[in-house]
Design goal:
The complex is a heterodimer.
Chain A lengths: L5 E3 L1 H7 L4 H8 L3 H8 L7 H11 L3 H4 E3 L6
Antiparallel strand pairs in A: 1-2
Chain B lengths: L3 H35 L5 H34 L1 H7 L2 H28 L8 H23 L2
Helix pairs in contact in B: 1-2, 1-3, 1-5, 4-5
């Protein structure tokens, strides 16, 4: 099975909104640990959580998560 | 400012860690007891020391199991806490913990099966309880590590 490579700009988008990990976690109803794990790229969130994150940050899902095109070339 | 979610997350982690420590001490004493029972050693003083360690670690385990359950009950009673503290990452970690526990018990059973060619295990209850301890211990340990 191909290794999933997804890049994310969650940390940047969160900083733009001047939110802490804890505040963002509370907004989307997860733990700070989950936000931290997603930011580090260790965990790829479900579509549901990705949509909640995009709504909380006021940006599209694609602005937060992108496919790493290198891994598909 | 620490949110309620973070406060309960830390509490759950702390009690799980304390529970794990008790389980580790109990497990080591249990293994020592099992070894001298299988080897049929007659050491009166060692028997007493191990019995005391087992008893004290059981009391410690029971204390932290109760505290852990109180925290879990509080989490389950509050909808937002329950959703956040049982979020998708936690559910994935739980799944990984179950998988680790399953393979640990399988591994232990394979080891016992191999050892049974050389040693006669008369007390099957001892093997059964050890397998349970390994399963439960590896489940808790995996969850604790993944929570770090």
């Amino acid at each position: 099975m191909e290794d999933k490579k997804i890049l994310n700009t969650l940390k940047i988008q969160r900083a733009k909104k001047d939110l802490t990990q804890e505040q963002l976690a509370q907004l989307v109803g997860v733990t700070r640990k989950t936000i931290n794990t997603v930011e580090k790229g260790k965990y790829i969130p479900s579509t549901y959580l990705a949509l909640k994150l995009s709504r909380a940050l006021g940006v599209s899902v694609e602005e937060i998560f992108q496919l790493n095109t290198d891994s598909y070339s | 400012m620490t949110t309620q979610i973070d406060k309960f997350f830390q509490m759950r982690k702390k009690y799980r860690g304390a529970h794990l420590l008790g389980l580790g001490i109990f497990f080591l004493a249990w293994i020592a007891r099992s070894v001298y029972k299988i080897a049929k050693l007659d050491l009166e003083n060692l028997h007493l020391v191990i019995f005391l360690i087992l008893l004290l670690s059981l009391i410690y385990l029971a204390y932290y199991a109760i505290r852990f359950n109180i925290v879990e009950r509080k989490i389950k009673q509050d909808v937002s806490l329950r959703e956040a503290l049982h979020d998708e990452l936690f559910q994935l970690n739980e799944l990984k913990a179950w998988r680790t526990a399953f393979f640990s018990v399988i591994g232990f059973n394979v080891l016992i099966a191999l050892l049974s060619f050389f040693i006669v295990f008369e007390d099957l209850m001892l093997i059964f309880i050890t397998a349970l301890l390994i399963g439960f211990g590896s489940y808790s340990l995996t969850l604790y590590i993944l929570d770090q």
